[in-house]
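Entry 14. Structure prediction run on the chain below.
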Amino acid sequence: MHTRRDQQELRISKQFRSLEVNKIETQNKITMQLTFLGMEGIAEHLMVDLKKGLDSKDMTDLEDRDGYFGSNKRPPPEIKGKITFVPFPFLSFQTH
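Output returned:
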C-alpha cells in the first residue's frame, strides 16, 4: 500500500518526466523547423523581418506575441544558499 508521501513523490516524478519529454519534443520541433523551413521560412511564419526584427513601437503586436508565445525573459536565478537573518543587539550609548 502506498503512503500519501509515496503517492506525492510518484506524482511529482511523473510531472518531471512529462516536462522533460515536452522539452525534448520542443527542441526536436525547432530542429525540424530549421531543417525544413530554414531561418527565412520560420521568420515568415512568425511574421518577423530578419533584418528589422519586431517593431518595438507596435505595442498591440508585442502584447499579442507575449500572450501567444510567452515572455522572452529568463526567470531570476534560484538562490542556492539559505539566507538567514541574524539580529544584532543594539548597543545603547549613554552620554554622561
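The radius of gyration is 25 Å.
Filed with the rest of this week's runs.
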